[in-house]
Amino acid sequence: MNHVTPSGQPQPSAQPDLSGIVAALDRTNELLQRVLAEVATTPSTHAIFVDAGYVYAATGRLVAGTEDRRAFELDAEGLIEAFIDKARMIFPDSRLLRVYWYDGARRRIHTAEQQGIAELPDVKVRLGNLNANNQQKGVDSLIRNDLESLARHRAIGDAVLIGGDEDLVSAVEAAQGYGARVHLWGIEAVEGRNQAEPLLWEVDSQRIFDLDFCKPYLTRRAVGYEPHGEQPGGGAVPPRDEVRFVGAQVAAQWLSSRGREALADLLPGRPYLPGSVDQELLIEAEQLLRLSLRAHADLRRALRDGFWEHLQAQY
Prior knowledge:
Layout: E1 2-4, E2 10-12, H1 18-41, E3 44-51, H2 52-64, E4 72-74, H3 76-90, E5 94-105, H4 112-118, E6 123-130, E7 136-137, H5 139-152, E8 158-162, H6 169-177, E9 181-187, H7 197-202, E10 205-209, H8 211-214, E11 218-220, H9 240-258, H10 260-266, H11 275-289, H12 297-314
Parallel strand pairs: 3-5, 3-8, 5-6, 8-9, 9-10
Antiparallel strand pairs: 1-2, 4-11, 6-7
């Protein structure tokens, strides 16, 4: 559109500075290309979360026939390095953030062995408490907090979880909700499984390390010790049927004190138990059995099976 000057002569309107716009677009495109190039060359990151209690128990039972740490020595440094190497093969385009090693200790004070592990490069030792019955307390919550926090802050894209406790299901679900992939690794069980089925159902992939893999990292101690059928407290490990029966006993006590209304609220969540109910079940069962079930994932499953079977029969 032309403007009219005071003399009556038309004057052409100002044209936009197209060269400036083109230059701005070029600068924007260049910046975007740099960002995309940086993203493309930035490796993804993974971390390894190790439940040491599970590793000691499962490896000891597989190689030495016992879960009692007093009966064998575990080359934790060599095993950790083997886990790192395996992860490097599986995630070739990913860098290791670190290995988290979760264990229990009296008053959370490092043992000499745990101090040595803590000094390893790229390894972070986190300790739960160890009570008078050699039961680990707080380890699962430490794993849950770290796994969920790292996934939430996008610090990792893949998480390797070496453990088997059903209590870790919620952590897996939370990490996956933030976009991380969770890979469950385990030690071959002598019989049955030593990892909870609900945990196996939730993870993105599974891997089991067999006897040949584990053998080089475990050495029996030369003591007069009979490994089979014993546990850290010195008592015999009960059969699954006995533990299942104890689960039914605890269920009967629970139903008697809570009533059928509480049962109706509980049943829709099967096979999961609310954390408070599951903790109560474990405590009551350990008192009846006079042993810790912390290192016996298969017996904890049998306990929960007995609990549920009794409750369903009463509904």
